[in-house]
Amino acid sequence: MCGWARAARSRGGERRFSVAAGTVLREEFFQKYYGPAGEPMRNYWLTAEKHFALARMGFDYGRIRAEYDLNYGRRGGRGGRGDHAAALRFFQANQARLEALQGHHPADGPYWPALVPNYFVVDLAKVRSRLEAAVKSASTQPVGELDE
Description:
Layout: H1 3-8, H2 19-34, H3 38-54, H4 57-72, H5 84-103, H6 124-136
């Protein structure tokens, strides 16, 4: 029995795959398939996997929106009573990235699927003017979610 199969078996004999079993399988594959080139190819594929898992464009959009909503939205830890000026600073720092992501593969464009579906698209100019008005008037109202 090869190493990955041993690692994938639990005490009762049934197959149970785990992270450890996947790691053993992957290391065995690199070693046996690529031979002497196993280490550089391992580095290549693990770097590619990390990029596709963590660095894709759509994740940025969700991360920025979630960070805004958690820090300044009603459902966040502050219950929406966040600082309007801080919310505006955060929005200004991320507005260009949000615009770029919303404009990349739009829902009405020829490419499918859209990077940001219609139901996640936010009118960024409206958000900015709402935040600027709240800062100017020193509002004590809740900041609200990004898409309100």
